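Can't paste images in this forum, so I'm doing it all in text. The chain is below; anyone willing to post the predicted structure tokens underneath?
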Amino acid sequence: MAQSNLAYDLERFEEYQPKIEKSPVKKRTVSPTHPVRILFLAILSLAVVSTVLYSRVMIAELNQQINEVTEELDVLQSESVRMQSELESRMSLSAVEEAAMSEYGMVKPDNSQVTYVNLNRENKIEQDDENVGLISQIIAFCKALISKEA
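Text version of the structure:
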């Protein structure tokens, strides 16, 4: 048998990938920050922080004022309810009757003091002729003409 120097060429089965050349990494030079810029940023951040703190303090004070006024409102409302009930008790019919008897010396009427009025007459409205308007006078004149002719 003849010997051959045939080996498997595995490189034929691999995909071709071009070689990428790496460019040298450029080092970034950091320029030193100017002190005025640092000072400006520090003042700006201090101003923002102090503004936020001030707004929080104002909110807390306003909430405290709201709570105080709400408590005062509750007290006043309960006082109003108390005074309203006291007024109603003073204005009751029995309280008025008692005050009339004790303070003003009034007494309940006897049967001898009661006078009855008989109103059997028919109620009617009388109108003065002086207050009659122009239209009313024309209507009255027309009625008078009709009643004379009939």
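The first helix runs from residue 35 to 90. The chain has three helices and no strands.
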